[in-house]
Each structure stands twice: as C-alpha cells, then as structure tokens.
Design a protein that fits this description.
Largest sheet: 5 strands, antiparallel
Order of helices and strands: HEEEEE
Number of strands: 5
Number of helices: 1
Strand order of the largest sheet: 4-3-2-1-5
Helix content: 10-25%
Radius of gyration: 12 Å
Distance between the termini: 25 Å
Shape: globular
Strand content: over 45%
C-alpha cells in the first residue's frame, strides 16, 4: 500500500513504522521519557497517526501510541 499521498503523520519514526512488518518485536522510547521494551508492532493508521502495539506479559494488552510522540525505536 502506498502511504505517501494520504498520510499526515510526520517524522522518521512514523515513516519507519509505515515500512515495518506487523509482528516485529521492538523497544519504543517516548518523547516524555517513558519506554516500552519487547512489544510487538501491529499496525499504523496513516490518518490518525495511531501506532498499535501488543504488550505480551501476564496479560496480553494492546497499546496505542501516537507515532509522532515516539523518539526512538529499535528491533528487540
């Protein structure tokens, strides 16, 4: 899918997430200093900039983050 014409999300992290395969295990660092280690990337909505991740521990919990608030991401 070509997101180049219909996305409003800005920044290198949003671009990276558009290219990342669903199910990829990543660590995420947020602009406010918070972080999430070992979460699975699920999808990015190019219209809302919402990135969906899955946190798997005692309970499997969805995590939705504005991709524009992520300052760093690495494959875990």
């Amino acid at each position: 899918m070509d997101y180049s014409k219909d996305h409003k999300c800005k920044g290198c992290i949003c671009h990276l997430l558009r290219c990342l395969s669903p199910g990829t295990l990543v660590d995420v660092i947020l602009a406010g200093g918070g972080s999430f280690a070992g979460i699975f990337f699920i999808s990015l909505d190019p219209k809302t900039c919402c990135a969906t991740f899955l946190e798997v521990d005692a309970a499997t919990t969805p995590l939705i983050i504005d991709c524009q608030q992520i300052i760093a991401i690495r494959r875990a």
